Amino acid sequence: MTWRRLAGLLTVFALVAGGSIPLPARAQPVSTLAVEVALPDPGVLSSRLGAVSTKKLTATASAVLGPDGTPLLVRDRAMVPASTMKLFTALAAVDVLGADRRFTTKVVSARKGRLTLVAGGDPFLTVHKSKSSAKPANLDALVRATARSLKAQQVKRVTLTYDARLFSGASYSASWKKSWASYTPRIMALTVSGGKSGGRAYTNPAASTTRLFASLLRAKGFTVNYGGAAKAAKGATLVASVSSAPVGSIVRRMLRVSDNVAAEMLARHVARAVGRPGSFSGGSAAITDWLKGHRLWKKGMKIDGGSGLSSLTKVYPSVLARAVGFALADPAFVDVVKGLPTAGVNGTLEHRFDDAVEKAGRVVVHAKTGTLRKVSALAGYVTTADGAVLTFAFLATHNGTHSAAAANWLDRSAAVLAGCGCQLARPAS
Q1: CA 297 to CA 288: how far, in whole Å?
Q2: pTM tops 0.70, yes or no
Q3: How many whole angstroms separate alpha carbon 375 and alpha carbon 340?
Q4: Segments of the chain with pLDDT less than 70
Q5: What share of the chain is helix, strand, coil (3-state, %, to 5)?
C-alpha cells in the first residue's frame, strides 16, 4: 500500500469518526489531513476507463468526481439506477427522520379482553430474537410482555385485531412486474420477517403478522379470537411495545444487503414526516422534493419508489456520484457511508471483484450495487493508489442475459479507479 493511499484511507476513517472532507455547495471545512494528493488526469482516466470492455452491453453511463466534487469524467444519461436508488432514500431518511429515530410496534387495549396490534413501520420486526443488532424488536418479546399484563388482569380469553393504517395506498407497486408477486413482499406498516415465509411473500403482511402473534399468545395458554383489521380506539391503554433499531442502523443494513422492504418503508416514513401520504407516490414525491432541495437533481430524472425495483425511475450517474460525495462531506450521514458494501469483503460486494483484473478494487472500493434483469449499476467511493478519494457511478443495460458481463464492466471500471495513478507521463529530466 502506498503512503498516499494510506493517507487517503485515513482521511475517510477520520470522516467516519466524525471528521469531514470538502465538497462543493457546502462551507469548505479544513481537510482532516493536510495531504497533497494527485488527482487523475481526466484524459488519462478517460482512456483507461474506455479500455474496459463494454461488449454485450447495450448502453452505459459514467461519472467520476474528485474529492472537491470536480468532474473528472462525466458521460451522463438518465438511466434506470436499480438499487443504487437506495442511496437517495438513505440520505433522505437520515436527514428527515434523524439517525436516532426508532419505530415502535405496540399492543393496546380499549377494554378488558380486547387487544389491538398497532403497526409502527418497523422494517426489521422478527418473530424470534435475532442476532442482528439491526433487528432488536420481535414478536416473542411482545407476546411475553402482553402475557404478563393479561395474567395480572386475570384475563384468559381475548379478541385480537390489528391497525396497520400508518401507511396507505397499494401494498404492491403498479410498476413492479406481476411475475415477481409470489416472492416480492408487499409494503405494509405491520410486517414480520421481511414480509415473507419460506421464500414466499405474504399476500397481507399485517394479517399474517397478527396471526403469528396470536399463535404465540395461544402457546402461552390464552384463548385468542382473531378479529382482523380494526382501528385502534382513541385513549386505548398501552399493554406492551417493542422498538426498532435506530434509523441509522436500519439504513446501514438496508444498504449493505440491499433490502427492498426497508427502503420502501423508510420512503413512507419520510413522506409522512413531511406531510405527504405514506404510500408509494407519497414516498416518491418526498424523496424527489428532498433531492431538489439539496441540489441533487437534474432535468430528466424521475423517482418511482424508494427501493429501485421500478424501471420507471431514471437518474444520472453524475447525481449519484454527487450524492455519495454529499454523504462523505457531512458526519451526519456517517451511517450512509458505513452502510456501503466493501468490495470482496461484505454485503452485496462480498463475492465481487473476484478476478485478477479487478483485484485492485478489493477492500478500497465502497459502493452500492444495483441489479435488475436488464440493469446493472455501481455507485460509491474509492481511494486511489495516489490517495485521492473519488466518488463514482457506473450504470449499464444489457439484453437480460449478460449480467455477468455487466458486473465485470462495473467492477473493472471501479478497479481502474482504485489502481489509478492516471497521471500524464512526464518527460525525462
Answers
A1: 8
A2: yes
A3: 19
A4: 1-36, 425-429
A5: 35, 20, 45
